[in-house]
Amino acid sequence: xxxxxxxxxxxxxxxxxxxxxxxxxxxxxxxxxxxxxxxxxxxxxxxxxxxxxxxxxxxxxxxxxxxxxxxxxxxxxxxxxxxxxxxxxxxxxxxxxxxxxxxxxxxxxxxxxxxxxxxxxxxxxxxxxxxxxxxxxxxxxxxxxxxxxxxxxxxxxxxxxxxxxxxxxxxxxxxxxxxxxxxxxxxxxxxxxxxxxxxxxxxxxxxxxxxxxxxxxxxxxxxxxxxxxxxxxxxxxxxxxxxxxxxxxxxxxxxxxxxxxxxxxxxxxxxxxxxxxxxxxxxxxxxxxxxxxxxxxxxxxxxxxxxxxxxxxxxxxxxxxxxxxxxxxxxxxxxxxxxxxx
Length: 342
Fold this sequence. Notes:
The protein has 15 helices and no strands. It is mainly alpha-helical. The protein folds into 2 domains: about 15-90, no CATH class; about 95-335, no CATH class. About 25% of the residues are buried. InterPro entries: ERMARD.
């Protein structure tokens, strides 16, 4: 019996496995097995949408094991063709990697709102006088350099990734969606991969929090400015926020691009020895610390916009220093096989 079961499991293609793990196992998914076995849901109350998808998957699975003559008859039916096509194109939705891709794209969409945020003409003139200090200029130079470095690690077989050398990172609307559309194996991920994904998820979560907070604070302060309800300190704080946002926008795009590129190359983590792996985790956690500090400083309670420039400068310097060591996963993907050995 065990031999037959093992043979059956190995006969399933990876896409079928992804579906089963999505619906039966992943914590973010329906967890059908656990919910039924633990009595968390009754059969009469079982969600119809999940039932429909499980039945559709079962039909496709049966066709994999019935006689070829019978299967060919059913596969000619339009409804069955549609089910087979959907099954063959299935990709994981609840694996941490899939959830992180969704998180990156959601954050990118929220960042697109920033250029549309209203700024009174008078405030725009006063903000211009706050721009151009040495630390902000240093940050902008680092962003340009880091962006250029990351562009060199974009996949070479996608035409959308060509001709980007001089294009600012926040002017590439299709860049992140294209990267997140690249299929990455999710089955049987080892602990190292899951650890890296967990840190990247936390970084992405903080980026999304910052994006929401900036939009909410901006709209509130804009309304108060228009209604002339801002005190002098609040007025200056609004101007500092307006100036800082011009720096934070490309910085967050840069971090999202880094996350997306590391996701594409996530399995290159196997090419690191123990010391390199710990150094890599240390770098990611320093980036997480930056996003956590950024979320705290941009919160409605603190509103410390001047400090965000200093935080950003330090974080960008760390990104440059680690990038020069060529120890990110995207760097390992570019190295000859002999150089990436553990």
